Amino acid sequence: MRSSRAAARTAVFLGVLAILAIPAAVVAAQFLNGIALLHALYVGVPVACALALIAVVCARRARFTAARSVRGGSVRAARLVAWAGLYAGITGALALAVYGALRWAQ
Fold it and tell me: How much is the pLDDT for 6?
């Protein structure tokens, strides 16, 4: 039987990466010449969404594994961080969608 602890750690790690993907894209646009902020966000937002979705799946697997085990395991932090990463990715996607709609309306 697999450990729920490993799946929870993976979910936390991927969730943190998802949360940090958009700020990392902004920092990359600030410090690297030739990368515009908008183009960096075109990469950072989908990366954040993809990492967060994988983190949610890992957190879900950790929850199911912990429910079947004899020892109780805490996967609450994994779920929280995974969903926070998903919220950050969706918020970034909505921001890009609003920007695109405003540019289209001009």
Answer: 86
pLDDT, averaged across the chain: 90
Task: Give the CA angle between residues 20, 27, 10 to the nearest 5°.
Answer: 20
Terminal C-alpha separation, the chain? 58
Torsion of Cα atoms, 50 then 55 then 56 then 59, to 10°: 170
Domain limits, the chain? 4-105
Two tokens, residue 89: 């990715």
Average pLDDT over residues 11-21: 95
Cβ count near 6 (within 10 Å): 13
